[in-house]
Amino acid sequence: MRYNVLIVDDEETLANMTAEYFNVFGVITITVNSKEACLNFLGNNQADLILLDINLIESNGFDLCRIIRKDYDTPIFFISARVSTNDMLIALNIGGDDYITKPYELSVLLAKVKARLKRDENKKENKQTVKDIRLDFSKMKAYYQDNNLNLKAKEFKLLSFLITNKNKVVTKEEILENVWEDTYITDGALNVQISRLREKLAGVDYIKTVWGKGYIFEVES
């Protein structure tokens, strides 16, 4: 199951109160009180953000953060009554994204969490991954197996259109209208761009010609 926020805190009264407050405002939140419970949760569920206390039952948040960072890039906000600069620096240097001191105002904490969730959601909307191809629309870059394909603007737009319509035959007219925004471009110009994309995607046969109709970006569902 997917949650917006996972709270890891052995102060169960405060953790439950925070979770209840967040849930009222539509931020789906769950709590655990130990390192073991946290790792078990992450092994079976997803969280968009973790609120992590430093002092935990039989462990501490610093050690847990280091463990989490080995497998997850989930944003981590430390929440702690410890206010020393040294603690803050350690938290941020080992992978924490923010440090919030207790006692905290629920409304302020919620605002910080929602702002981060919104920012991350916007980033996700600007990216798309299909199989081993990743598109970054904000930078107009495409990657195959994490290698930059170094596409030109038209090539990126063409690949994006084909991927957006994956497993669907798109006609030459549809491609010209949506990629070139001009239906009078010659078939030769389109064929050249298709050939270049295929060359840059050497080793995979995603872009297929459907004779007499157009092209299809075909991947297994």
Short account of what is shown:
With 221 residues, the chain is α/β, with parallel strands linked by helices. 44% of the residues lie in helices and 25% in strands. The chain is built from 8 helices and 14 strands.
Strand order of the largest sheet: 2-1-3-6-7
| Molecular shape | elongated
Number of helices, where a helix is a run of at least 4 consecutive DSSP H or I residues: 8
The run of helices and strands is: EHEHEEEHEHEHEEEEHEHHEE
Could you describe the largest sheet, including whether it forms a barrel? 5 strands, parallel
Helix content: 40-55%
Total beta strand runs: 14
Class by helix and strand content? alpha/beta
Evaluate the radius of gyration: 24 Å
The residue ranges in which pLDDT falls below 50 over 5 or more consecutive positions are none
Beta-strand portion reads 25-35%
Distance between the termini: 22 Å
Mean pLDDT: 92
